[in-house]
Amino acid sequence: MDERKSIPVPAAARLCAVYRLLCDLSAQGVNFVSSGDLGEALGIGAHNIRKDISHISGGGSGRSGYDTARLKKQIAEHFGLENEYRACVTGLGRLGQALVRDGQHIFKELKIVAAFDSDLNRVETIDVGVPVHPTYEITETVKRLNIDTAILTVPDPTAQECAERLITGGIKGIMNFTATHLKVKGGVTVRNIDLAGEFKILSALMFLGG
Amino acid sequence: MDERKSIPVPAAARLCAVYRLLCDLSAQGVNFVSSGDLGEALGIGAHNIRKDISHISGGGSGRSGYDTARLKKQIAEHFGLENEYRACVTGLGRLGQALVRDGQHIFKELKIVAAFDSDLNRVETIDVGVPVHPTYEITETVKRLNIDTAILTVPDPTAQECAERLITGGIKGIMNFTATHLKVKGGVTVRNIDLAGEFKILSALMFLGG
């Protein structure tokens, strides 16, 4: 466990991208792949790819190539990538609704089992394909349905409070679509997907000249 | 221009986050802020905040603090953050529809003026508040409406082709929601927001123990 945890987050992120590419290559019947091929497809240097893979795999040289199926299995086992997660979407604005309806398709291995919204009228009338509960039932529902992952799409000012209710219920991971920097206790992972912030960064880089 | 371009992308990204925080602080009437306050709110070390700001501002010590309005203006001017951009959403699946309908609200300074979809039936029947065109009209429409920014929400296999049509039309920046690593020419900026990939990373970090 200690050895696993020592992988830097950016390396873990790149290995997740490698895993997804290996899934595609497997499906296409490609049995063997070099670090150069992987790097080319992902826009990462071959040397970095080899270094990342060396974190999880002792033997085998990336220069001569990797067995697609074997490397895919190694990465999946190392990071539990084929485990199933049970999720809820919290906040049913347009983005939240799109994610609860399409989530099963976008996020494989993620089973969305509930949604929450603070608008009681919306809770009673909306049909998104999973049961919808009022936000004051978050903690109890998360606990009862054994939900471990939350997609957070509430308005920024309520994000921290919702996150705390989710965590009290037992949530271990949050995909945070709000602009709020969540304060969470140890053992809870947050991945920030700040769309407004991403656009600001895009426009800044466009202004600087691409 | 050279000096501006020399700012590393992660520093530019952090300064964009600082800018958005300064907007909130300004609105709350906070006139003075320290690097420690900024860092605390953003989950970044105060030292890094000071170093990032030093890229764009010669004088003023972050240790004693910054004038909120002045720093906000400096960052905005440096990165053109208050410029307006004209955008299109390409691909009207659920996520694309949510983004075209809510984009104006999520992305300030972004004016969504058109949308595209390959499904001619959808093009004729959907109402998302802006004109919808078939994808074969991308290049001509982007050129005619002077669109500079694209939100790309098409299925992965068509992403590269759509990107090329957009760029031929004059697009300078793409928010790429597909899992495809786009190959673009110089002068075009791509910001990848790969939701499926982000979930894989979240699940990997959850598995490693948060």
Description:
Two copies of one chain form a homodimer. Chain A has 210 residues and is α/β, with parallel strands linked by helices. The first copy, chain A, has two domains: 2-77, Winged helix-like DNA-binding domain superfamily/Winged helix DNA-binding domain (Arc Repressor Mutant, subunit A); 85-197, Rossmann fold (3-Layer(aba) Sandwich), CATH 3.40.50. Helix content of chain A is 50%, strand content 16%. The first copy, chain A, is built from ten helices and eight strands. The first copy, chain A, has a six-stranded parallel β-sheet with strand order 5-4-3-6-7-8, sandwiched between helices. In chain A, helix 2 (9-27) packs across helix 5 (68-79), helix 3 (35-42) packs across helix 4 and helix 8 runs parallel beside helix 9 (159-169). The longest helix of chain A has 19 residues, at 9-27. The model of chain A has no long low-confidence stretch (mean pLDDT 90). The interface between A and B is large, with 63 and 63 residues.
Structure, briefly:
The structure is a homodimer of 210-residue chains. The first copy, chain A, has ten helices and eight strands.
Chain-wise SSE layout:
The structure is a homodimer of 210-residue chains.
Chain A: H1 2-5, H2 9-27, E1 32-33, H3 35-42, H4 46-56, E2 66-67, H5 68-79, E3 85-90, H6 94-106, E4 110-117, H7 120-125, E5 132-134, H8 138-144, E6 149-152, H9 159-169, E7 173-176, E8 189-192, H10 195-208
